[in-house]
Amino acid sequence: MDWETLFEPQIIKRGWDYYQQGLVRNFRNRDGQITATVLGSKRYQVTLAVDGERLLAGSCTCPYAAEDRYCKHMAAVLFMADDVDAGKPDETTVANLLKRATNQQVRDFLAQMMQVDPGLVTRFAQQLDRDTHKPGMDLSDYQHQLDQIMQKYTDGTYFVDYPQGDALTTAIGDFLAQTVRRLLAAEQMKLAVEVVNQVALNVAKLEFDDGLEDETMWLVDACAHAWRQVLKPADYRVKEFALDWFLANALRLGVVETDALTVMFDTFLEPDFLQKKAAWTAHQLAIVPQIRERQERQRQRNRWVKLHLLTMQQLELPPAEIERFCVGYLSTKQARLAYVALRLDQQDYATAVRQLILGQQAAPSWDKADFSDQLRQLYRQLAQTATPELQRSLFVLSYGLGDLDFYQVLKRQCAPEQWLQWRQYLLAGLPQNTDQLPLLAVDQAYPDLLAGVLARPGLQAVQDYQRLLLPQFAPQLVEKYVRELHQAAQSAKSRTQYHQLVAWLTDLVKLPGGRLVANRVVRDWRQRYRRRSAMMAELNVYF
């Protein structure tokens, strides 16, 4: 195939290295779809769509490909595909070999190969039965064939042990691909949908031995691919039947469930079908509060908010209606981001900034980037286009919510010689008694920062900013520690307070010159507070 021009040169080189190292496993090429597993820092699943000599699309579970880029794992699989194609004998060579061989030689060779590769047994049997499909065959006939596969490879238990994993995967994949192809050729669309549904239900019942994760995912991908294949040319009546089946069965498909929902919400886009999906997702959301386990309840809320919101958008409902829904579910990432988008459409920048900051603060670590990336992009836009009044009000808002990024963006946009004047204008908008120490840190105004830290009661400000101040002002910080320690010791009465004093002393020890000073403080306390037995006991633990 002519595919290399689609990849960056360094990606092609890394893909070639992966292929040469034998890191491509479970390679399959069927019906215009290539699938494989590539071993790297993790196992990555690669799926490629091809049409003759052309690469149409590719996907990989690696982070690089998540941004719609062709990755080294795809390149490694394509190198294998090229070699496999190059190794195929041409039809003339095959014909000449068969012409020279006797029937007995062909039979002996075929029997030998079936012993080496058990998957050939199923494929040969299906080849012999390729004319099995006759008018009058119904779903029960195909279910019988599927039952035979399950009986042969799992003894009817639906448990797949490791040695049988590849053979079972091949058998089900061949059955699914060949049956769907025949039924589509015969224009029996409804029966084709029913067969794929039955395969998915059977795959959902399978329990795979350890180490068969790739086989599991390959069967899930095969079901999703087959659904798309039969639903694309289906008429309204068949699609309606298929959607009703998904609505009734999607949530009991086990490992196939996520892919089934993806197919369901990508495929049925006619208005009547969208209304059905909207009613279904609304019902699923309504029963989420009944889930007892908190994490599962949150997971299901996130899922159904995302799908219901998608359906509302596909229905092109009025923005006000979508916004009301989003406001009710701002605790979910999807609803909050959609609400932000609606507010930006209305140029309500203050609400958009507020929700992005709150979302960033509330999100788990793996979701924070979804908010912070959009917030940075919005800040850059507003720093260039917003009026000074709007910029100041947004700065006050963001700073009040504990976010310094907009201040930093504004500073980068401003010429150095103008920044002091512009900074005064920004600070004038802050409420009185606002803590400005974080801004002094951003501006690297360290003398002013030191003055603010020293004037602040307690040691919290020292500990917050000592990393910035220590290179220039270690003696002043050590002196601040001593003053606060002596003041706190005078009023300390409880074991908890004594423990806190010792904790501050150990922090003081870590500062330049702090150990000598801490020892002097301890000696002084041993004399001054010798009657406080609990305090002496705490000191004796560490000093």
From TrEMBL:
InterPro entries: Znf_SWIM (IPR007527). Residues 44-82 form the SWIM-type domain. It comes from the Bacteria. Keywords: Metal-binding, Zinc, Zinc-finger. Pfam families: SWIM. This is SWIM zinc finger domain-containing protein.
